Amino acid sequence: KLTSLALQPAITPELVHGRVHLKCSYSCPTAKPPLQYLVVWSRLSTPGKKEQVQRDTTLQSFSYVEMNGRNLRLGDTVFCTVTAFSRDASEQQSLPEESKGFYAGIKFLPESLQIAEDGKEHVLTVLSTVPIACPGQDDSCKITLQLSTEDLDSQLPGPPNIALSACQVDLLRAPCSGSSCAAATVTVTAVTDFAQDGNRLSRIRAEPVGRRDLLWRAYTPKDVKVTVRDLPTGNCYSFTDPHIITFDGWRYDNYKIGTFLLCRSTSRAFEVHVRQWDCGGHRSATACNCGVAAR
């Protein structure tokens, strides 16, 4: 056998004649007699089990395989394994070397979120690890993803757990860099529901829309799981004639007639006005709440 040659195969995505390919590159040691290479492409079919999709014997320092939507599809994790052997004596061969797994498809970063009902926005990055092809003259080089949310604790009543800043995002083609060939961002916020309902689980789903090519049409990316941590909500009250208890527990009385500013936030567009009218008898003047306006 040839000694270990440190071929170090690695997979990168590329567009070849407008179609998505994966390229397996490896280092070629100078050897006499010259070497040729067996490149075996495989995909992860089930956890821990690989399925061979293509074999190449080549003199080059690289090999291509097409993501055609049939034997290699979006959502696959792909490997290439390279063995070098002598052209003159094929029984002289190196130990096979396998690349790291390359995930082809849409990725979310982070892959899951843990957020709290505190009004903060959390950035979710959506990226494609493969380049975006332009299938026709009238198509721009982009993938449009329709975003939706679903509460997994659906048996509990109430508003949705999370809100997104956009219902769809466009992944525009860009030069591949790192693990990204196109990226967009969306913000996720936990809905403050004023209920003590414990931690709740939701998911964000993305679906490609309007694509006619086989590669994208049959593909649904993995969901993003979002855990929303319940936080206690502040309460204030105005009741009977009216007694007022503020968020921090102080107690006041306001027996006057008129329209009053009950609450205003210093950090966001939120305020509450209350209107009080005369609801007293002959002996005493008493005011009661008769209307409220909230923004």
From TrEMBL:
Gene name of the record: Vwde_5
InterPro entries: Dev_Signal_Modulators (IPR050969), Ig_VWDE (IPR057885), VWF_type-D (IPR001846)
Protein source organism: Alca torda
Recorded GO CC terms: cell surface; extracellular region
Assigned keywords, A-Z: Disulfide bond, Signal
Descriptive protein name: VWDE protein
Keyword Signal: yes
Top-level taxon of the source organism: Eukaryota
Occurrences of domain VWFD (ranges): 234-295
Keyword set includes Disulfide bond: yes
Molecular function GO terms recorded: signaling receptor binding
Pfam families (UniProt xref): Ig_VWDE
